[in-house]
Design goal:
Number of helices of chain C: 5
Oligomer: heterotrimer
Structural class of chain A: alpha+beta
Strand content of chain A: 25-35%
Number of strands of chain A: 30
Number of strands of chain C: 5
Chains: A alpha+beta, B alpha+beta, C alpha+beta
Number of domains of chain C: 2
CATH topology of the domain at 468-610 in chain A: Aldehyde Oxidoreductase, domain 4
Largest sheet of chain A: 7 strands, mixed
Shape of chain A: globular
Radius of gyration of chain A: 27 Å
CATH architecture of the largest domain in chain C: Roll
Strand content of chain C: 15-25%
Order of helices and strands of chain C: EEHEEEHHHH
Helix content of chain A: 25-40%
CATH class of the largest domain in chain C: Alpha Beta
CATH class of the domain at 468-610 in chain A: Alpha Beta
Number of helices of chain A: 19
CATH topology of the largest domain in chain C: Ubiquitin-like (UB roll)
CATH superfamily of the largest domain in chain C: Beta-grasp domain
Distance between the termini of chain A: 50 Å
Amino acid sequence: MVATPQKPAYKVIGTRPVRPDGVDKVTGRAAYGADVVLEGMLFGSVLRSPHAHARIKRIDTSKALALPGVKAIITNADFPAQESGTLDLGEGSANPKWLVDNVLAGDKVLYHGHAVAAVAAVDWHTAEEALGLIDVEYELLPFVINVREAMLDAAPILHHDLRTNVRARNVDTPKDRETNVAMHMRVEKGDLAAGFAEADIVIEREFTTSQFHQGYIEPQNGTAHWNHDGQITVWTSTQGAFSVRDQVATLLNQPVARIKVVPMEIGGGFGGKIPVYLEPVAALLSKKTGHPLKMWMSREAVFQATGPTSATWNRVKIGAKRDGTLVAADVSLCFAAGAYPGSAVGAGVLCALAPYAIPNQRIDGFDVVTNTPKTAAYRAPGAPAAEYAVEATVDEIARALDMDPLDLRLKNAPEEGDTNSSGAPWPRIGAKAVITAIKESAHYNSEIQGDNVGRGIALGFWFNGGMESSSSVAVNPDGSVSLILGSTDIGGTRASLAMQLAEALGVPYEAIKPQVVDTDSIGYTAVTGGSRTTFAGGWVAYDLGQEIRKRLTERAARIWGVDISTVTYHDDAMITGTDKDGKEQRFTFEEICRRLPSTGGHIAVSAMSRRNTAGPAYAGHIADVKVDRETGKVTVLRYTAVQDVGTAIHPSYVEGQIQGGAAQGIGMALQEEYWYDDQGHLRNGSFLDYRMPVANDLQPIEVILVEVPNPGHPFGVRGVGEVPIVPPQAAIRNALRDAIGVNFYHTPVTPTRILDELLPRA
Amino acid sequence: MQALRYARATSIDEAMRMLQEGGETARVLAGGTDVIVQARERRRVIGLFVDIKHIPEVMALEYDPQRGLRIGSAVPLYRVYGDANVQRVYPALRAAAHVIGGKAIQGRASLGGNLSNASPAADSIPTMMASEAVAEIAGPNGRRDVRVNEFCTGPGRNVLQPGEFVVTLRFPQPAPHTGQAWERFIPRNEMDIAVVNAACALTLSGDTVTAARIAIGAVAPTAIMVPAAAEALVGRRLTDDTIAAAGAAAKDAAIPIEDMRGTVRQRKHLADVLVQRVVRAAAEKARGN
Amino acid sequence: MATSERLVITATINGDERTFLADSRDSLLEALRERLDLKGVKEGCNNGNCGACAVILDGRLVNSCCVMAAEIEGSRVETVEGLAGPEALHPLQQCFLEGAALQCGICTPGFLMSSKALLAENPAPTDEEVRFWLAGNLCRCTGYDKIIEAVQAAAEQMRAQK
């Protein structure tokens, strides 16, 4: 259902064609990273730490190397030494020293599952068997899993050279002693004390969230060939081929000119397939053996060693006037970064209060290292935990004021010209449009009936990204147009970008032939992440479309022997004018394309775009739940996701993004979490015990698309992929409050936690 | 996958010979949904798989109103829950078999495998215990019978001696006016390990319980019978109070651990809740039989 | 230490009799992918919990990671590569494509095989039955709705063809 009708009369945008990569994906022919086969290919496998924190005293590989079929073994010592620094990953950044130590542990292992050594062998059975023959001597160290405990003065220290990077004024956070707090940042505006003084009520609450995993179904993989001429080719399933190129170049101390990254089809990422894990290891093993080599992770390794979200500990204090005006907010967010600094707390800080126009506010963020896997981006990284805490607190304010929770939100929603937390004015945003659409929705206006049944709502916000994208276009004599893309396609961007080029040119979608290519074949393109690809790639497609229109117009003018100003390229791709004899002339797109070779040659153009006008995304979700008080089981009875999508290029794919994001958020709300035992071992590193929703856990997720076009994009595009994961935790938590009268302060709200509240205390 | 060999047996004798030759790391391969994963993840040392699925007896499913039900140990679950007699006479068994793993697991997994794997949380074991099922075991010293409620000796451990394996599971014909029910609690709606499961077989004379067998799983090192729960019912009329007493007995009998799937308090509480539910459901069925 | 063996296995794969060399340690998943180059069979978890490797073995849906390659001697195996005919896609494939029932596509082969097995057994399932049957197949991109709709659309087409 599309709620906002006033839209330009697009011909291609808003239709639902099939995806160019679709047939290959339903026939099994699509080639993902693990499907690479190369002549003489070896197989690699990684030995992982059985401990949460330990010093590596000795690694003896002699027995493993003696196993027939084993070709090489590498450890951290085989990588060039790295200095501390900053390497841009696209959605976040990394210190090369920490990155290489994460790829293969340096002097210490910092989490259960941390990679320690890697084997190359003639087949995967032999590689795996060799792992059992590597002898590692560890000295066990005290460990810390919990973010709150890691911040204590007495906590075990992960990195003795780490000092707190204080990005806040007037705070007394120490900067000169050993700590696990890697960063303290603060964003503030207005006068906090004055704001709270104005408030009639103040509610202060504390929240924690567990660690969640992206849960992509395709495990990480990496294949590499270090050729004898020094050229390195990497095949991998990644969100950013250029990001992989740059990371591999840095870790191997090689110029980027020597590295070509071939992006394979990618089986899900959600932010988790930006950092490298196996690619540089495969490259080094290839160098050592002289053969191409393929590696892929077990599912357990994916859970143990690839980027989950931060576990978080957050405090929210909000003051409101009796009429519901929110006047002051004080928020503190503590995010576990995992073994190395770099959680998404910064984004959490900027998103936390974005659904509200609160004049006086202060948000503190702390980035804290813990003996858990290094976190990675996960769909709106940082926002779900931060906004969950705020949305839960706002719900309690609505109850305290006896106000409709939606009216309270509408009263305080920001609009164009209001300032965000860092004081910058909002562009045109859809916050109020989303709330209004919820208010008018059939779901919100339906009755809920029965005992232990409740309804909750929550808002969500995400900035969306811009960043760099490159594309090339070649116009073919048959009227088809090749579109060469640098963005890896994770959820349908070949289709959404081809549609925008088709719209820009006025040709059918089927005329565009999109293709994702390697890093030697296209200009720099940032990661597929930050909900940026359809936005930024769409800008490039639009720019390329304009350039082709211009060139074809020039060509027609030359053919007709007239000045270009007398020739018109119409939006249906018809070119009209009057030739030098005064005769009216016209070319269809196909006709002029057919004339290209004989009238001056083919047309091919390239373009790059780096625009910072990505339109922010607002979402609001409605959840109806039912609780079985005897077992603590929650059934989601009905779920609706409302979202400002700017312009829905391919509505089915937009709905799919929203349904998928909401499903992940529902998993976070109710059933997914990392579970560590008292040894700091991750015990549920499997799809059996890390409980992602299965098909019959969910009811249909109804989607209402609100279209408030982004003025910063030629087709009004806003990113749509990330924000739908933000509201579910609070929407369901607020629904549970409505159903059983209990406020929960931790997600997920598992049956165990519900029973803890409902059962009489022992 | 650890280094191992594969052998296919076509008779019980051949299987026993292969198991003996394979020594203590030889293991029977039925549906493989547990044991193949254990071999891959090196949770058991396995040097030889003896595939028994080509032995007719272990793949047979027979029902006779006098002798009851015989299910070959390797009969896949889809045949168990799809069988009309199982559905009619052993509805609790049908219910468990229908939700163990997903459909792709049910195409392979078997009752013999579920039992021999001896997981404390195995979904089929409490219902087999409540239905007085007997495991027929073949071994170097011939055949022997072991009641299912005496089969498991600890997590992953059972009474099988080297060279022995389960050939058939025998379920007696339930007495008239007997009802059976099985339930489990899992956080998801499928594809999950039971936090607690429970089964009940109950015989009624009018409103009075004349016999009851109650078993619970995932609350002790093995699934356990709860005689005290049965005693709370036998000889009494079914009332909210007697049913609550049975639940309380199950709660007392439960000695669970805390792990990622549940806490002690939660499991003891669920043992109570689920036992009450299966008693009510079994009584409902008994009244119809 | 235990040893493994080289095995010569003959089985009918997507209708054709094939003979191949395998290791006695190979799972059916590994044999299909690495020995027979049927890379449409996907590894998602390798322990029976995601369904990405689902194939149909002698008419039954199985996870190929939980089957030993040696077991398929003399058996029939159907994989996603055998679904489409020379002229057209299978209705399930066509409906997944048109109904946007896939995003990244890694789980799609497993869902297609699982759905095929469902419709063979129950040509007119309810949505609840589809969701129950497909509970062994994880999808992380779609939230399942468009998959359920695509299966129902295909079921309708297949009923009409009969």
